[in-house]
Structures are given as structure tokens and as C-alpha cells.
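Problem: given the chain below (65 residues), write out its structure.
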Amino acid sequence: MSEISNFKDLGIEEDEFAIDFVDEEGGAGRIDLFFRTDVAAEIFRAACERAGLSQEEYLRRLFFP
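Solution.
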């Protein structure tokens, strides 16, 4: 498993994605990620695959190390 890289290090610019942190019942939460370009989505998908993680797990490790 490789290390987790932030979006900038992956080459994804701030204007290419949006992130929404959603609180759910019982204190749980989820991270909703929206890509504005297909290229950014593919870069992120490939990073998750290299790390051996789902997109949700990758985001959790990125934001809550």
C-alpha cells in the first residue's frame, strides 16, 4: 500500500473538485466528493487503486490521519 497524497500533490487543482462533510445520526459522518472534470476523477480513482483503498477510506485517511 502506498502513502496517501493530497489533491494538490496528485495534480488536482482546487477548482476541479468540491468536498462536503455530512453529519449523520449517531455521530457518524460521511465525506461527499464531487469532481468537476473527468481527468480529476480518473486521477483520484488511480490514486485510490495504487493505495489499495476505496475512495471513502482514502478520503478518511487524507482528512483524519
